[in-house]
């Protein structure tokens, strides 16, 4: 345990005294059970860490380090105030910051969920926002490992731009995006960055792209020795490397776009589920309504990796461009059954829209899982999500899809889940898939996503109290004339049988709400369960106000009483807002 030091000012002490006055009785009872004469000694704190916090390896030195970190207080131990201070401190988070990357990173890329962006260059909506390198930089700094660029000829047909084709999005030069990727690719994680290219270029411009990519990335560009790979390399082998993934070109070649029978299902009004998963997203640019109406939305909807990959579609391709492609993408001729066929001698990437995946999952769930054991499946938002909303990522993950591509420039519950998933494994952008998605049993059987499973474990969550809103929000933010009425929503996002949301009662007129409520969540697939936590302020006459959120991977959750930091709707951590919660597994 790393030794941390605090500088505790008078205001902070007063703040903790106020919070302590609202502390749940159970916290005070625990302190008295592990202390003598109002003092918890290092040995008693060690016992608390082992027995309540389930930190079996905690040493007397760890306990002393906690006491020393509160250096303005009693060095011989903790009194009730400093014990409470410790429980709310950054020394007591629900995930272990020092754990870092701890999954086996030596397996093929197909064995990992990968933090994946969709149309990574867009600053807002899909039809009329600006294209820029700024959202690419933000995504990379967050840990995103897959960046998507749509590449088109510029207006004079002599250079290459990045934009969402056939829309009013303003272009950005490809070279600017490539340079941004090179500069920021490994700031947050040293594991490989994949650039997925949606290619709309002529062969001469492909050659220009090949020159740009080669000159920009140099030795960090991964180029396989053979055109096709029998197995993908590992993230460990590809550390600090850039990987290009694309399909054979379609705009200027003979191959025609496949029009899926299910295209019609992607049109029309969003369903209730869409609304639940995709709230609070960037709005359309003002003043563009009339122009947007002129866009051929059908073309935009169908313009994403739905080209057939016949041999004749390669004859005009620039050879130096083709040599760059490490992960080949595209759909073979035929329908979904052909797309999901596994070639024992070659691995590839397949892209499906969220609607195509949902339709295929009805009857082909096991075939999708089998495909993703060796190959990479990318899932992207359906075209009607013009406001850059997102979808439920669990559908892709429970079928083994590695690249569940999201619009990272917005916010909303779906995106909170995506960010929560990739808090796992040290935030490196790669999370090893659960073993059951990778194993093949007798008679070549694989995991059936539709199978009814028994409960593996039960997560018991106690929501004690919260604090920090008084310091992070204007005092009139929630209510003009009285303190806020906070309640907490807590639940699970996971496989359908595990997914549920519950809520506490609202505590009236209190900046330091104490709920002290217990919830139990039986889990059939804890390996894919995400703990959702939200705080809202009850408003009788209007929509309830937002007070913070976080999503935590259940499989990395620390047992015990923990301080849970909350984040804004945009995913930015609040300075002070935290919940005190107790997590127990049985």
Strands, helices and their partners?
Elements: H1 10-21, H2 25-33, H3 42-51, H4 60-69, H5 80-87, E1 112-117, H6 134-142, E2 146-153, E3 160-162, E4 172-173, H7 174-184, E5 193-199, H8 203-217, E6 242-246, H9 272-277, H10 289-293, H11 297-301, H12 319-324, E7 325-328, H13 336-339, E8 349-353, H14 354-374, E9 376-380, H15 394-397, E10 403-406, H16 413-421, E11 430-432, E12 457-467, H17 469-472, E13 486-493, E14 500-503, E15 514-523, E16 530-537, E17 545-553, E18 560-567, E19 573-585
GO biological process, one term: lipid catabolic process
Organism: Lupinus albus
Protein name: Phosphoinositide phospholipase C
Brief digest:
The protein is globular and about 85 Å long. The chain has helices at 10-21, 25-33, 42-51, 60-69, 80-87, 134-142, 174-184, 203-217, 272-277, 289-293, 297-301, 319-324, 336-339, 354-374, 394-397, 413-421, 469-472; strands at residues 112-117, 146-153, 160-162, 172-173, 193-199, 242-246, 325-328, 349-353, 376-380, 403-406, 430-432, 457-467, 486-493, 500-503, 514-523, 530-537, 545-553, 560-567, 573-585. The chain is built from 17 helices and 19 strands.
């Amino acid at each position: 345990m790393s030794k941390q030091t605090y500088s505790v000012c008078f205001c902070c002490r007063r703040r903790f005294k106020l919070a302590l006055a609202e502390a749940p009785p159970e916290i005070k009872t625990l302190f008295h059970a592990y202390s003598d004469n109002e003092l918890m000694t290092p040995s008693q704190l060690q016992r608390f860490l082992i027995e309540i916090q389930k930190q079996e390896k905690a040493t007397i030195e760890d306990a002393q380090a906690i006491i020393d970190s509160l250096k303005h207080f009693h060095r011989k131990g903790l009194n009730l105030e400093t014990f409470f201070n410790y429980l709310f401190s950054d020394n007591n988070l629900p995930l272990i910051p020092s754990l870092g990357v701890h999954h086996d990173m030596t397996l093929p890329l197909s064995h990992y969920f990968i933090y994946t962006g969709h149309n990574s260059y867009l600053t807002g909506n899909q039809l009329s926002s600006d294209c820029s390198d700024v959202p690419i930089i933000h995504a990379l700094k967050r840990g995103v490992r897959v960046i998507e660029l749509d590449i088109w000829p510029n207006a004079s047909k002599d250079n290459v731009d990045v934009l969402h084709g056939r829309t009013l999005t303003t272009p950005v030069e490809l070279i600017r995006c490539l340079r941004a990727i090179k500069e920021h690719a490994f700031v947050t994680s040293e594991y490989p960055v994949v650039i997925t290219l949606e290619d709309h270029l002529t062969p001469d411009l492909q050659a220009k792209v090949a020159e740009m990519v080669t000159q920009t990335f140099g030795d960090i560009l991964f180029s396989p020795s053979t055109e096709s790979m029998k197995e993908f390399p590992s993230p460990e082998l590809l550390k600090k490397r850039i990987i290009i993934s694309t399909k054979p070109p379609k705009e200027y070649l003979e191959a025609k776009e496949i029009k899926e029978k299910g295209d019609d299902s992607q049109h029309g009004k969003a369903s209730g589920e869409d609304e639940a998963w995709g709230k609070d997203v960037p709005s359309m640019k003002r003043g563009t309504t009339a122009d947007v109406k002129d866009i051929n939305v059908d073309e935009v909807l169908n313009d994403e990796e739905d080209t057939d990959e016949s041999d004749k579609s390669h004859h005009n391709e620039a050879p130096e461009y083709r040599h760059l492609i490490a992960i080949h993408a595209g759909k073979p001729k035929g329908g979904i059954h052909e797309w999901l066929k596994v070639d024992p001698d070659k691995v590839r990437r397949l892209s499906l829209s969220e609607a195509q995946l949902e339709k295929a999952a009805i009857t082909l769930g096991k075939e999708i899982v089998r495909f993703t054991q060796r190959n990479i499946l990318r899932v992207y938002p359906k075209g009607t999500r013009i406001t850059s909303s997102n979808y439920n990522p669990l559908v892709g993950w429970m079928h083994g899809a590695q690249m569940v591509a999201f619009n990272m420039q917005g916010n909303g519950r779906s995106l909170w889940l995506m960010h929560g998933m990739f808090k796992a494994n040290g935030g490196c952008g790669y999370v090893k898939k659960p073993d059951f998605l990778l194993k093949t049993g007798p008679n070549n059987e694989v995991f059936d996503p539709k199978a009814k499973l028994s409960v593996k474990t039960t997560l018991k969550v106690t929501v004690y109290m919260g604090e920090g809103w008084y310091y992070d929000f204007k005092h009139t933010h929630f209510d003009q004339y009285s303190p806020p009425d906070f309640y907490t929503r807590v639940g699970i996002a996971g496989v359908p049988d595990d997914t549920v949301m519950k809520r506490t009662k609202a505590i009236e007129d209190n900046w330091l709400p104490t709920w002290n409520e217990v919830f139990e969540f039986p889990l059939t697939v804890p390996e894919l369960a995400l703990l959702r936590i939200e705080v809202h302020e009850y408003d009788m006459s209007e929509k309830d106000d937002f007070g913070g959120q976080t999503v935590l991977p259940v499989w990395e959750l620390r047992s015990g009483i923990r301080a849970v930091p909350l984040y804004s709707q945009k995913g930015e951590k609040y300075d002070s807002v935290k919940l005190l919660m107790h997590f127990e597994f049985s």
